[in-house]
Structures are given as C-alpha cells and as structure tokens.
C-alpha cells in the first residue's frame, strides 16, 4: 500500500458535518480522494466537497439515507465506479436517540438499528467486493458502548455495542486478505448534536480524565492512523478517543 494513503479512495458515510466532515477532510489532507454521503443538506455536503477539492483531491457527494440499505450499497458501488477503486470505508453516519426506555417505540428501535448497525454491515459487505490487500474498514462507535454513565442511552448504547462484534468478526474474516477492520469510540466531542458549551457539558466533562470535550479533528486523527499503512498490524481493535471517559 506504500507509505501513505496518497491516491487511495476513501468513503465516509455522513461526511457532511461533525466528525464525518473532519474525517473526510483529514483523509484528503493525507492524500486520499474522498466520497461522502449526506441525507438532506446538499449545500453543506457541497461545501465539504469543495474543501476537499481545494486540497487538490477528487471528491464527490452522494445523497443516501443510511436507513435504506439499497441506498448505502449503491453509494459504495458508485464510489468505486467514480474513482476506479475503493480502499477505505469509514462508517460514520448514525442516529443519536436519547430518552427513557419506556418512550422508545418500535419505529425508534427499527430506525436506530437500521442506521447504526445494518448500514455499517451492508456498507462493509459492498466495500469488500472492491477492496484489495491494504483495504481498511473503520467504524465510529461511542464511549457509551463501554460505559453507560447516564440514563436514557439504552437503545443508542446497544446499537453501538453491536459494532464491537462486527469489528472483531470481520477483522478475523478479512485478515487473510490483508484488509483490516477497526473501531473508534469517541468520547464527548464538540459537534452540533453535543456542543462543548451545551447545558450538560460541565457534567459530562467531569466524567473525563482530561476535563474537556474533544474536537472532531481529534477523532479524525485516530481514523487517519487506522487508515494508514502504519496501522497494517492493527485489526479487530477498539480505540478509545474519549479523554479518559472509560478509564
């Protein structure tokens, strides 16, 4: 795979905002051409595409609802067709349901599992059809899959915990093909959904060892390492980037 990810092709689901956007931009900085998916905000996705192109890399955005498995698979195959190869899959898109378990309805359950569990599975299933030796599958999990410190996270925590099993099993299955599979568990990260200045921020900071939120670029740095040739002997692993939340 060489010493860099120069001219490799990366796919980042939910890459128009937050952690996904930071990952897409970091992989572009490191030399990859990047495809992202977005659900509704085309203007925001177009901004990320232009920023990637401004770094001298090719970029494209596909509208794809991660709850629709056909849309996810089509986006993966369209990426391979557009760029002529497919090297790095980053499963980032997710729903973040929070609330008492008594208020979780069947539709909430189905939608969360579709986006947070089924989408990463079918994306990996489609991606490996295009990957060769040196391929990378990286999923974005959550610190609450390891430590459920607050009430109301049962559905979200369960969905993210499923990615641990997927990562370990796929890492074992794809190892003989020199394709690595890893999982990044972010801790509290300053995004639109969970701003560092939000009403719960002080409480959440108190659960970390470092006492503050991560920036999306902190998560992107871990993803960039796992996508790089330097991580060729890391597979089936979970990397906590959580400021010591789970320490």
Automatic annotation (TrEMBL):
Cross-referenced InterPro entries: NAD(P)-bd_dom_sf, Sc_DH/Rdtase_CS, SDR_fam
Keyword presence, Oxidoreductase: yes
Pfam families: adh_short_C2 (PF13561)
Keyword Glycosyltransferase applies: no
PROSITE patterns, sorted: ADH_SHORT (PS00061)
Gene3D superfamilies: NAD(P)-binding Rossmann-like Domain
Coiled coil stretches, renumbered: none
Similarity annotation: Belongs to the short-chain dehydrogenases/reductases (SDR) family.
Protein name per its UniProtKB record: 3-oxoacyl-ACP reductase
Phylogenetic classification of the source organism: Bacteria, Bacillati, Actinomycetota, Actinomycetes, Micromonosporales
